[in-house]
Amino acid sequence: MRRDWIAGISLLGLSGAYYWIATQIPRSQLSDVVGAASYPKLLATILAILSLFLIVSGALAKPPVGNNQKEKHAEDKKEFLKAGGTILIGIGYLVIIKWTGYAIAVALLMLAMLLYNHEKLSWKSAGISIVGGVFFWLVFAVLFDIPVPKGVWLTWFKG
Are 56 and 74 found together in one domain? Predict the structure, then answer.
């Protein structure tokens, strides 16, 4: 399909730009053999490979015919709007994380995604979200000792 081919070319260009930016990461005297730029370069390489697969599949795909094309267009539009909703939920997460803190923001993000994907609001969905928020907070803040936003509301209890 033509869209796959265009998306593949665009992503290939993006991967090239990302790789070039990764080469600009300065090498520190304290860095190990691998260096700080290795992971971003790996990601750019993987993106380039996947982009090439997308280009090839787009070039080899047969275009839809007749009513199939209208159905495909409607399906593509629905998927595009669903992706837009997911992006808006992610933006909402970024907006509230500083105020709510990491664990609560992740729990709300998980709940929003469950509801957005047609899961009913229930004790199960709320429990999954709460456990997920606590789990990811424990992994990143406690286990890996990565600083995460604590949230403004915690300052209310410091008296």
Answer: no
